[in-house]
User: Fold this.
Amino acid sequence: MRVGGTNRDTDAARAFENLGVNVEVLHLNDILRRRNLFTYQGLVFPGGFAYGDYVRAGAIWGKRMLAFIKEDLRKFAESKKPILGICNGFQVLVEAGLLPGFELLQETQQVALAGNASSKFECRWVYLKKNPQSKCIFTKEMLDIVRFPVAHAEGRFITENPEVLQRLVEGEQVAIQYATKNGTLSNGSYPSNPNGSALDVAGICNPEGTILGLMPHPEDAFFGYQVPEWTRERKIETYGDGFGLFKSMVDHIEMAF
Amino acid sequence: MEIQYQASQTLNFMNLDDKEAFALCKELGTRLSLTEAKAIQTYYKKIGREPTDIELQTFAQTWSEHCFHKIFKSEIQFGKTVIEGIFKSFILKATQEIDTNWLVSTFQDNAGIIKFDETYSIAAKVETHNHPSAIDPFGGAATGVGGVIRDVLGVWAEPISNTDVLCFGSLDFPYEKLPPGIRHPKYLMKGVVSGIGDYGNKIGIPTLNGALYFDPSFTGYSLVFCGCVGLLKNRNYARSAKAGDVLVIAGARTGRDGIHGANFASEAIGSNPDALRPAVQIPDPIAEEKLKRAVLEIADRRLASGITDLGGGGLSSGVCEAARNFDCGAEVDIASLPVKYYDLEPWEIWISETQERMLLIVPEATLAKVLSAFEREETEASAFGRLTADRKIILKNREVNLGTLDLSVLFDPPLSRLIARPPQSEKIPADIAKQSADNLALVQSQSNYSQDLLALLKSPNIASKEKIVRTYDQEVKGNTILKPFQYPFSGPNDAAVLKPVPNSERGLVISCGLNPRYGLIDPYWMAASVIDEAIRNNVAVGGRRIALLDNFAWGNPERPEVLGSLIRAAEACYVMAKGFETPFISGKDSLYNETPLGQIAPTLLITALGIVPEISRCVSSDFKEPGNSIYLVGSMNAELGGSEYFSLKKITGTGNVPHVEPVSASALYRTLSRVIDQSFTRACHDCSDGGLAVALAEMAFGGGYGADVNLPAFVTKSGKPLATFETLFSETNSRFVIEIQKGTEDKFEKMMKGFPFRRIGSVFSGRLVVRDSAKRRVIDLPVVDCYKSWRSTFA
Assistant:
């Protein structure tokens, strides 16, 4: 799904197309008109600056959906069809109450993506560590340590209070964390944790693992040629680390629906 | 709400005397010269009526330097010779004389277009937004980006990469010495950098190539070059508008922003820049993102017959130029144009430069489809006129006539013959000349080259700009193959490489060249050097079949020696483009760049676009493996005039600006391209600012290795041996440092036979060691120390 200001929809669509998925990029207005969300098996909120990120990143898109298609979203999420939010999409999932999802479509927001600690837009490749204990269906096929680029100004994960963070950890909802090349967590150190996120959180899922929001961009690390250091051996692999994430989502859909 | 416009005001202009006519033009906010005002008077006397305000404003827009480029078109008396226009005699001439079959459109449309493969072309444009950025750094830079993106959309291409080259004054300029109203370079830099990043990031186009340059002559000012490269599906390039087709405006509503922007571009910025703020437009990248989607959909469905950006001069320039290009006239209803405020005068609507607007020309039959394509993207679009068969522009408010313009008169401004004098190299005051001579003697007698290298690496023009560049998105669209900084340690790459077409391994290489400091000494060799730099940066990563874009930023051309230096640079453009067989495809000049502190350094930006047949053949600049051989390719001369090293040593006005021999250099580049295609070539980097020593350090950074180098004894062409500091820091053009896989040196040497090259050492871990020809260690540093210095300036 996209709205005015979404800009990484083609990147994500290209990854799915490569996996043989029939992808449609629909404007929110099309969905409001057609009301056919449920005819799809998976939903992706791509990156960008939806509605200029005015008010707060992702806020307008999130609230517009709650105002017009809240019940459609609920039905979609309850059916365990996977929902992926990348970067601005993660911010949308949080604003719409789909994440952290302790209670579906909860009205008060318990987590947020605040301005980066550097107070700047940051574009760089980072290492990420997945939580193998998580129920997250998106990381099943993904390597334990992966490398994706980040490109955002508002990605610092914060929670309303320490209890929320505690609950996320205990529920194994912290699916992906910023780390160093050898897999030790960044422990808040810049630039391996590029934004100052609490507990190095790069992505969280709902308790069921069917909704994932993450700040880094697996769609720009999907093909081998997108990965930075291929010039070292002058050999381009077919896929980058982002492949595993998209493959996991597609596998889940094929098995469950 | 129905708008009740006034009929336009008929002026009392025809019978004014010179002084009064000129005064009236000024009062109306135009910057028409006396000659121009008189030419307009003569025309209206001939047709026997007074002009209306909207007519006079249209003349002022069309005849502005910004829109018509009078200086580049005028005849110039240069000593005893007469030049028939700089553009025609040098830039265009080179393109016309170079025999190629891959140019699609040059200097005609909103952007230059070259072939990419059988299905796609590449469109490119680089604009300057210097004046607006000096007044409102954020807004000026952001609208510069927005404007150049629309230029690329204006040839139906999808924007795939932005470029930005920025020049500022010295960041350590003392605040108390700033004249009133003049902004500090730090303030300007902060605003410009955020403006560039904000627009590019939000619209979702990666910013992939550029440069940041600092020179005292830019203090109180900034040069902001914004470029955009687009991918054009050949079948989408619609340019078939005809009489009867409908004029459609799409995007933002017209407001009062940017009125007379095109006119003020030719004025020096005085002591009260805030007063000029209304002439700067307001950026809205999200509006442009939506506009872009709709335009690309219309392109893909081939629903329109013409398109153009609305930039400088607004609708006035957009409509008049489109009508002229399609050999038509136009009839326009000002009341049909969507506006932000209802108290706008018709002439204000007509010349406003409100951003995020495009003009489309649409056949009646597909009009409804075009309007609904915009509606789906929540973008306003309205039909407001038609092309007509005669060559007249008729402006109306519903039924009331506001003005009529004859295109043949409108596009025939009086061009006066300009006077140019050969530029004098800067006259150096005696005390500075003496100091320079003393410093040079000191350099020759010592020195501590390790300390010199560390100091050079800290120099703002050489130091790592990573902190700044990482605030730009380089990954969006997922096509970036070679990034501005090479991981893991972010060494600088020479050029960016994109893979623009899915399912094709063909790559596009974007690079640039710029060196204002050379321009202060010798504009001819400055221009030659930056052309070589742009081309060699492209070649260094694997690029070939190169096309160039030129952007001149000069001072006040009404000063004969300023115009003379412009001519010298343009001469070099012709000679170099021919010698390298690299045609110019698009260009833009920005003149009258001066501040209360003086003229800016003559600055030519060259952007180069090359092709790599297969992206996997690209090389990055970082050393890959200890033990591999390091070669220096290219000749070596003592050319330190305007160099970073002389600047560090406070030596001004002496030394040779590096020369270029385009024919032998291009033969070298052709061979080098074949060398780079081979897997034994592991790394390649060009030698530029700071010479060989800095090139070696930069190659060490990317991979975290070092180098062990033994310098041979170099002699100049005249047989004079080079001093150590000359070998280390001379900025001789057309040189590269190359890493060759150990054990394959003979293969490399065989291919390079007949060209100047020397094996100078091998890749090493941890330290950068350089010995002179007498085996003395002249540089011996831990690479990590070099790295820390290099990153400390913009930390």
